[in-house]
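Researcher: Last one for today. Full complex below.
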Amino acid sequence: MNKRSSKPVDEPDSPNSVGWVTPGRIRLATPEKPFTLEVGESLSDVVVEYETYGELSPARDNAILICHALSGDAHAAGWDVSATRRTASGRFRPMKDGYTPPRGYRTKKPGWWDSMIGPGKPIDTSRFFVICSNVLGSCYGTTGPASLNPETGRPYGLTFPVVVEDWVRLQALLLDALGIGDLYAVIGGSLGGQQALEWALAYPERVRKAIILAAAPRLSTQGVAFNAVARYSIMNDPNFRDGHYYSDANPDHGLAAARMLAHITYLSEEGLDAKFGRRLQDESKENPDFGFEIEFAVESYLNHQGKVFVERFDANSYLYILRAMDYYDAAARWGGGDLVEAVRRITAETLVASFSSDWLYTPDGCQELVHAICRTAKPVTYIDILSQYGHDAFLVETERVGSLLRGTLKARG
Amino acid sequence: MNKRSSKPVDEPDSPNSVGWVTPGRIRLATPEKPFTLEVGESLSDVVVEYETYGELSPARDNAILICHALSGDAHAAGWDVSATRRTASGRFRPMKDGYTPPRGYRTKKPGWWDSMIGPGKPIDTSRFFVICSNVLGSCYGTTGPASLNPETGRPYGLTFPVVVEDWVRLQALLLDALGIGDLYAVIGGSLGGQQALEWALAYPERVRKAIILAAAPRLSTQGVAFNAVARYSIMNDPNFRDGHYYSDANPDHGLAAARMLAHITYLSEEGLDAKFGRRLQDESKENPDFGFEIEFAVESYLNHQGKVFVERFDANSYLYILRAMDYYDAAARWGGGDLVEAVRRITAETLVASFSSDWLYTPDGCQELVHAICRTAKPVTYIDILSQYGHDAFLVETERVGSLLRGTLKARG
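Model: Here's the assembly. Have a good evening.
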């Protein structure tokens, strides 16, 4: 059904796999050295979960940072050695000291971009030192709304400060701690592409190549609208209780509805048609039952996506990350509202790729960025990849994206 | 904000208004003569609310049937004489004997297509006798899930039989009762356009002209997917209680989320951009507050749409009508899956209009119907109207739609 699940998987002992990996955890803010967010509030305890693959060269010039998307994590490649199966009754629980993230879901899957990262793969770990960290506000090991607030001893919930694009600043702190000055490349898709762009804008001197996939300098009005519905669903779930639900039932129905909706925006109309059409879930039936139970295959797919998501993601984290998506606006941040002014800062070689049927971060939106860079008389490589997989294409079109990455990363100059 | 609300309104005493109207109510099924639905179940009591404008000619050859869309009603033109303001605490209540529909919302508004229907208007009531009836399963006067089941004395709720395209058959019974054999024209947009198509297929001998706006022979997979999320939201609202909520709190949050989502699908991306962009709701603010309250104008618009909808619509009716939308498939019904075979039945002159930015019933979907009719070597008039108003365009583009209707209805031959 899902193209991704039918993809061949590199087992941990495959020569093309980075093998077993152990996530690292590092404390990047302390009461003595708090992390101040853009909104002005500070966190006195920030732990970041990250993974690395390959080896840093003696010249420290081969580092590549991978930025993950909305529901992603630091586990981009290989097999997580600490992954364990979730207990049957396992609900999302606040992290104890930031060290017990829920990640039973990883048990049987390699990292989310394992197809791209590994020895001999497009992001070749025999040449590059690859880093991926979980974003602030998420629920996969990095401090977020489910973490315990050291001042109260209780989970932050909605008292966690709103995150805008503090992600990149925290990643920079992580690189500092790892002794990495410059990045050979920063790469991301979707919300990860937004971070790659922000890297090129915020730290132009530290980025040699910026690879931005299926992302735009800001979310469209339609995107903000979909996020508004998702947020409404979560925050009006009676189990939400203003974000203080950790010790009780979680707002699963609201989060599931939000995720189902999101999945529609990740697929294209033509993709949905090709994948499901109006097929009934039970193909042995000639006619539907004419009722309110699940009948169509597409309903069953969405229900399943909602159901598995609430087992692996925290509703508060979802709210924080959606809001960061809403608020990000490269032109406003760096150009006083003028995107051309903003991108004058960029010194990295940029590659921008959109996907023809992506209607969440549309080719038009991506091209706004490309046009702006062109107007500064700087080179930018742009490709609109023909695909029916919609926004998901950046993860699904592994061959085309792979050859693009391979080519762009080839020249070590 | 909303183009429709800034439209000039014909007051009841205007020469272009049909003036004050009183809805009619007629019992079309009784225990002696039940109405059997397509799914096989029967209703022993069916009341239909309808309105008429203009006068039936002595030759009875000037009748036009108007079919309403999802959340519409029989009140298509003029001013409802029985409309009263809803009480402040007024929640949706089951109809007593089918005679007390909630329609306080009509107080200050003329009928939903008043711009098209009236003396001298495109659907000219000085020439035509115009009929519009509320569909089976709705909550505006025609029997639906909120009506009392005569066998139990309680509202049907989800025990109401699933409606597929019984609407048209019930409309035919209404015309019989009104002494109208043939229709000069049947006209509808969206779900109303689906009914106009079904009329041309089910009663070819009774329809001279079929005008189908922003509709298709079946809903797209993406449409089914959006409906699945809407249904999930409603049915998982804890107030839903399997549809038996009438004597208690209603599933307002679920219904509001469904409606907010629907409104995104009614507008186009470009329309949303033009109407709201990333404007803040409070335009006096230079920067957002960075929180989870409503900040963007588009959020406020959607929230408002959700809020007003739950005051005027019944969640069960919404479920029934969405499901009818899902299940309708003209090719399956009339051509064994082959649309060309199906449309061979059509003898009416057909006009099909799509709207360029409509992504719910896309131009592509409308063109499937047009192509099929062409392949039967029958004439069909088709136009794709350039508009940024998305699916809403069939209601908003009054000038273009008006001139189209005027021209098509002109020739009385």
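DSSP finds twelve helices and 16 strands in chain A. The two ends of chain A are 42 Å apart (CA to CA).
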